[in-house]
Specification:
Helix content is about 65%, strand content about 0%. With about 160 residues, the chain is mainly α. Helix 3 (about 55-65) crosses helix 4 and helix 5 (about 85-95) packs across helix 6 (about 95-105). It has helices spanning about 10-15, 15-50, 55-65, 70-75, 85-95, 95-105, 115-120, 125-145.
Length: about 160
Amino acid sequence: MTTEPEPGDGAARSAEPAERVGHVGQVVGQAQQAVGHAVDDIGSYIRAQREAAQVSMRQLARSAGVSNPYLSQVERGLRKPSAEILQQIAKGLRISAEALYVRAGILEERPAGKVTDAVLTDPTLNERQKRVLLDVYESFRRENGLPDSTETPNETRK
């Protein structure tokens, strides 16, 4: 004669750890997919930027200090470049390293205004000049009692 487990029985709780393991497996799988998507996304973004700038893969590889095969693997989503390599690629493309960091999932995207966007996308400025300009801009905003342009409207600076 079989009996059903009572609500307080240990048998009823034995399914819970298995459910947790299944949930953890799903979360890990989703994280792996997100990383894979970020790698694909950064590669396709770099390729699009390179093509828009009319720079050959060989030229970009040379200016970024990486091998041609490595850059090809990055563009095809087979390799995830480090932050240092992304910075070198950004220099070679004359684009913001911050844009590449966001695409690669290294930095979180932050809301930006027209001034910030204009500074970050200006190909005639280097990364240090862009940072200095944005720091000065933000200090003027704070001096005038305005929140940083990078804060959401509900945030206040203390």
